[in-house]
Amino acid sequence: MELFAVPDLPEIREGDDLAAMIDDRVDLRPDDVVCVASTVVSKAEGRTADLADFPAGPRAKELARNLEEISGEEKDPRFAQAVLENSTDVVMDAPFILTEAPFGHVSVNAGIDRSNVPDHDLLLLPERPSESAERIHENLDASPPVLVTDTSGRSFRHGQRAVTLGWAGMPASRDWRGETDRDGHELQVTVQSVVDELAGAANLVSGEGDGGTPVIVVRDWEFGDHGGSDNLFRDLRGDFVRQALREWEYEG
Amino acid sequence: MELFAVPDLPEIREGDDLAAMIDDRVDLRPDDVVCVASTVVSKAEGRTADLADFPAGPRAKELARNLEEISGEEKDPRFAQAVLENSTDVVMDAPFILTEAPFGHVSVNAGIDRSNVPDHDLLLLPERPSESAERIHENLDASPPVLVTDTSGRSFRHGQRAVTLGWAGMPASRDWRGETDRDGHELQVTVQSVVDELAGAANLVSGEGDGGTPVIVVRDWEFGDHGGSDNLFRDLRGDFVRQALREWEYEG
């Protein structure tokens, strides 16, 4: 397995044809996996916004006031409003806002990016990342699988790592159910989230910031002869952490 | 960046010199990263055990009885005893047991493996995975960084992905603090858990079960000129998910 960055991509602007820009720069194969940072997908889709677009309602004002008290830092209630308007569920409201996006991804501040957005205050996540992935997948000459990725924190461990928000051309997970080990025991790992592991691998190569390369190609990796699943995001009923967080209250 | 499996490793037995076995099979470079599945580290270190080694005390009996009621499946209280004896904290006791290992890793059933252990019932995690990594790192001719990896589930998302339990020869995380994006904004991602992303990348190549290859080499990847951190495992105070789970009770 080999990973390399698509070279020399310019700053992406609204309306840019990402597939064409990638095809211009690399000769893709049908069995490559193309990992695209959600920031450039959002930019191409014009998902920029400004704080002035989000006049704060009562709930946003309350959330921001509470976060100000906790942090001792000024918090813009319009940002809280932007988070609420881009979420279907607030999983946790302090000491930071953790929400579920309409497409199922749970992230801090609805994944809204306040850095790396020229001429605007905010960059929102793609509205339907799997549809974005599908469009790029279909428009690339070789139609390889495409992942739209982002980075996020996690429980139990410090640091962020990349995850996949949307995918096309391959299943999200490898299903090992029913397969056995060398001694004939049934395997303990049953579902492997390959799209998240691919996102993490790509993130090792892409880096961040001004030296960052937002599109990474994974070559000579095989999904292999396994079952697949597209069930990536847990719903509330099957997510004990989310159930626990809903009942929990931050006390400083 | 390129990843490949160390070929033709035999079934690992207690006392095997993993570093020598790897050096016999690949010409490593000092800037490779060698990812070793914790199962083979545990086997080499003789971390096998049997249920008979863990006569169940009252707490283990209660845990197993509760899990039996919830699942309707028979649960061996000696397994619960093994989990308790290999944990420093029970984060959650139903509908499954989530515990903290002495070295800080939170996992289901203390990471004890019931598959892939010839002649024994159980395979325990390495006692001090970073010390295991350090020994392999020092004994390999080229002394490349070494990671000891495992797979685990996570909140919010279905499926397992690999994580790192212990590391040597490199920091656990890349620290981007103070670095800026193309427009001079400070980066939102500040700490990138590169050891977990490397573990995930290796897991894409290694697979599971009887076709699995437990040692993967990452070549031509650079940590780069960044700060580093070895603070991988959150403590209770900084882990809101863990705080919430301690207060939460499973109700079916």
TrEMBL record, chains A, B:
UniProtKB keywords: GTP-binding, Ligase, Magnesium, Manganese, Metal-binding, Nucleotide-binding, Potassium
This protein's name: Coenzyme F420-0:L-glutamate ligase
Organism: Halolamina litorea
GO MF entries: coenzyme F420-0:L-glutamate ligase activity; GTP binding; metal ion binding
UniProt keyword annotation of Metal-binding present: yes
E.C. number(s) listed in UniProt: 6.3.2.31
Pfam families found in the cross-reference section: F420_ligase (PF01996)
Residue intervals of the Coenzyme F420:L-glutamate ligase-like domain: 9-220
Domain of life: Archaea
Enzyme class: ligase
